[in-house]
Every structure is written in C-alpha cells, then in structure tokens.
Specification:
This protein is of the alpha/beta class. Helices cover about 45% and strands about 15% of the residues.
Length: about 290
C-alpha cells in the first residue's frame, strides 16, 4: 500500500511539518480544500484532518483525507476517534482508506459528546486509542488489514506525566510508531518532551498551537483538555490587536520550535480559526532554522 509518506519522511530524518485542519461543518468543502492546497504549497508535508474535535460534527476526516490524496496528491493523516464507531466500523473504514492509498492514521480516544447532546447522541467508546492500536496490529498480523503507520497522541502538559509516559509506552507495545504531542507551552511541557525523548522509541512530532488573542488564550486554558498555557503567556496577549496577536503567536511558536528541536523528529502545527497565512509564516520560520 502506498500513502505512507509520513513514515518515509521520518525514516529519512527529513523533519516533516504536519498541519492540522478542522473539517468543515457544512457540505461544501471548498474553503477546506483551498486551505489544504495552500498549506501544502507553502511547505506542509502532511495535512492532518481532525475527527469531529470536541464532539462537534463535521465532514468525516477519512473522507476528506481520501479526497485530498486522490484529487490533489496531498499526503494526509486522518484522525480516527473511538467515540463514534465500534471495531467493525473502524475496520471497514480502514479498508476504505487502504483502497484510497491512505496508509497513515492518528488513533485517538476522542472527545466526549457535548453534555447538551447526550440525551439523543450516545458515544460508542468500545475501544480507546491503546486498545484500538492493539486490535489493528492483531488484524494486520492475521492478514485482515494491510499494514498502517499508526500514530498516537502524547500530552506533555499532563499533571501526572509519569502516568502519561507509561501510557505512551503501552501504546508503543500495541503498535504506535509516532506520537503527536499536545501544544507545547512553558518549561514543564518542554522538560516532559525531553523525558519522552529518552523513554520512547517512536518518533516525536512537537505540537505547536498559535494562540492569536487574549480571548483565545483564556478559552483554551479553561475549556480544552490537554492544553495548558502559562499565565504569563496568557497575560502577554492583553490589549494586542489582531496583527500584534498573530505576530506574538508566530514568535512564541518559533521560540518553542527552537527550544524543542533536539527532542523532536518534526513539528505538528494546529491551524486556529482557518488562519492559513499565519501558519504559512510559521512554516517558513521553521524551515529557515532547519
């Protein structure tokens, strides 16, 4: 199966840059597709597609990834959440991705369904990211699935990072080959990343989230699991206008990239509010230093 370019880039020590885009929440994918093509042309090696982040429904990540690869030749990494599918549904989806020559997937447990929707929408959660990796590896060994390059998440902001690291080691034993970290912000996250580098055999892709405003920083700090922002960073955005906020975001991302360069095999940039121009400038800054 082709479509495992991410694995090849990592093996070649090419320090790939991955960029995440959220799926559109309506049927017209034109803006999403345009953003993906623009980012790829600007130097993003792989576009990762989120799977209904925070439980909000959008176009299926695997369908979008397949479309990007088939129609535009863009290398992709779809997220695959355990929230909405049992093992049969996941296996069927993986077979479809193989047909479309998509050979890399990011396995995540997935955010729960929003509290207000739980009366009429039920999460499945037959598996978590670890047991899903194990199931895929077993089915691959049995010849029921082709080989995939399996990626997982690593929360370098976890209050109990020892437990997070042990979980990552168990994921490796189940077949995870690379870890995409939650956004790195602050000394503790950087220190945890270097600890992970020493303990894990798999590839590490350092997460960068460009915080664009004080309001954005406060929201992320209070409402998004896995993201921890140092108070002084939050305060540094007070009274900044849009242009100043984006300049601050770019500089912080490049500073973190420089501080973590020796610990990672590449970078994983999340795109806030479809601000493609900002992410392109961060890609350029990282490329300039590497």
């Amino acid at each position: 199966m082709n479509g495992r370019a991410l694995e090849e880039l990592l093996e070649q020590k090419a320090r790939p840059i991955l960029v995440e885009l959220d799926p559109p929440r309506q049927t017209d994918p034109a803006t999403f597709l345009s953003a993906a093509r623009e980012l790829a042309e600007a130097g993003a090696d792989v576009i990762t597609v989120a799977d209904c982040p925070v439980g909000r429904v959008g176009i299926d990540a695997s369908l979008l990834a397949a479309k990007l690869r088939r129609e535009y030749g863009i290398e992709v990494l779809p997220h695959m959440a355990c929230r909405d599918r049992n093992l049969n549904a996941i296996q069927a989806l993986l077979l479809g991705l193989a047909m479309e020559r998509v050979g890399s997937v990011l396995l995540i447990t997935g955010d729960p369904v929003a509290q207000k929707d739980r009366e009429h929408i039920k999460g499945v959660f037959q598996l978590n990211s670890q047991t899903l990796a194990q199931a895929i590896s077993q089915k691959t060994a049995a010849g029921e699935l082709p080989a995939y390059f399996l990626c997982g998440a690593l929360n370098v902001n976890a209050p109990n990072f020892e437990a997070e690291l042990n979980k990552a080691l168990r994921k490796e034993a189940c077949g995870i080959r690379a870890f995409l970290t939650q956004p790195i912000s602050g000394i503790r996250a950087v220190e945890n990343l270097y600890r992970a580098r020493e303990a894990l055999r798999g590839y590490l892709l350092g997460g960068l989230f460009p915080i664009v405003s004080y309001k954005n920083a406060c929201f992320l700090q209070k409402n998004v699991a896995g993201i921890t922002i140092d108070p002084e960073i939050v305060a540094s955005y007070e009274n900044l206008d849009r242009e100043q906020g984006e300049a601050r975001a770019r500089q912080l991302c490049l500073d973190i990239a420089a501080r973590t360069a020796q610990a990672v095999d590449g970078f994983y940039i999340m795109t806030p509010f479809q601000r493609v121009t900002l992410v392109k400038s961060i890609i350029a800054g990282i490329r300039e230093k590497n």
